[in-house]
Design brief:
The protein has 135 residues and is of the alpha/beta class. The protein is built from 5 helices and 5 strands.
């Protein structure tokens, strides 16, 4: 019973944790606004505001992904799926590359032009926050 309660408590922390848009601490980018984040993650631009090429990657956590896209783009899971289907079909864009969370954090730390979103619990010293989304 104690294990179940602990699991529920941890799950609730993840579900309600803030979401951070992050890059490597070595990145020259200092911050982004919501509009810039939206354009980058919907593949409307492939460059940071300073002109550097951006590599968008995301973890496999559906809870964090759904919350991120809902809060930043106002798109539901089904709307986002339809959006990417259209982008792929018309050749206008492609969805972010997916990685397991442990690989994602390492990849972000090693690649200054990579960007992703994570929950606050995943934050490490090797990353820099560009934008914070309150839940």
């Amino acid at each position: 019973m104690k294990k179940l309660l602990l699991l529920i408590a941890i799950s609730l922390q993840i579900v309600y944790a803030d979401i951070l848009v992050v890059v490597s601490e070595r990145s020259s980018i200092q911050n982004l606004d919501k509009h810039e984040v939206k354009r980058i993650f919907l593949d409307k631009t492939r460059f940071f505001p300073n002109g550097e090429k951006v590599q968008v990657v995301e973890g496999i956590s559906e809870n964090v992904k759904n919350a991120f896209y809902s809060l930043v783009t106002n798109k539901s899971k089904s709307q986002l799926r339809a959006y990417w289907a259209k982008q792929i079909f018309t050749g206008k864009g492609r969805p972010p590359r997916k990685m397991k969370e442990d690989k994602l954090l390492h990849y972000l730390a090693q690649n200054p032009n990579a960007i992703s979103y994570i929950s606050t619990e995943q934050m490490s010293n090797s990353l820099k926050v560009l934008y914070k989304i309150k839940r």
